[in-house]
Design goal:
By secondary structure, the chain is of the alpha+beta class. Helix content is 34%, strand content 16%. The radius of gyration is 32 Å and the shape is elongated.
């Protein structure tokens, strides 16, 4: 009734709900009960627990977190107060996409290093890989190339698409900055299951180590 006093007269609402006008005004003047005050204090703790859970905690996990903090309350009470505040658990973020595909029929790039990453001089062995990072706008793919001798990143590229151009941009950056001599071996870390570029750009670009 209190939320509708601007739309309907109090007397009309009291008649429709079969309550007395004096009883309504007595309720309006009445101080919050001990239960209401306890609910208000508990609602603040529930909101804090919901924020700690990054918005993915439902009433069972919020109740468990409050229990660990020494707050005794029922799970149904927690669920009721969460509904009153409009707190609803959201679904967790989508799983990270796989950047290594083992289910394909394309030719596999040769693993020239055979997991021997020890290098005797700079620009003798390069290793590379692709990973994905979740952003608010979607997945961002990163291709990187490391010099096995110094363990420094010598080439990288980022894009929203995981295709051969992403690999080519990282490789072009590495070739332009290092200018390796013949004999440099460039092999993907996941060479046993990563197909070569459709355009012919290969990680194993200049021979063997």
């Amino acid at each position: 009734m209190a939320s509708q006093v601007r739309a309907f007269p109090v007397q009309v609402m009291c008649q429709a709900l079969e309550v007395s006008v004096s009883g309504y005004y007595a309720w309006r003047r009445r101080a919050p009960s001990a239960r209401q005050q306890a609910d208000a204090a508990l609602s603040t703790r529930i909101h804090s627990a919901f924020v700690v859970g990054r918005g993915v905690y439902g009433s069972p996990r919020v109740h468990a977190l409050l229990h660990c903090q020494g707050i005794c309350c029922g799970r149904k009470r927690v669920a009721r107060l969460m509904r009153a505040q409009g707190l609803c658990a959201t679904r967790p973020r989508q799983r990270k996409p796989r950047t290594t595909d083992r289910q394909h029929t394309q030719p596999v790039a040769p693993n020239l290093l055979a997991r021997n990453f020890a290098a005797s001089a700079p620009n003798r062995k390069w290793v590379a890989d692709i990973t994905a990072s979740g952003t608010r706008s979607g997945w961002l793919y990163l291709a990187g190339i490391l010099n096995a001798y110094s363990r420094r990143a010598i080439g990288y590229a980022m894009d929203i698409c995981r295709d051969e151009r992403l690999v080519e941009m990282a490789l072009d950056m590495a070739l332009g900055s290092r200018r390796p001599a013949a004999g440099c071996c460039t092999t993907p870390i996941a060479a046993a299951s990563t197909p070569p570029s459709p355009t012919g750009a290969s990680w194993s670009a200049t021979g063997s180590s």
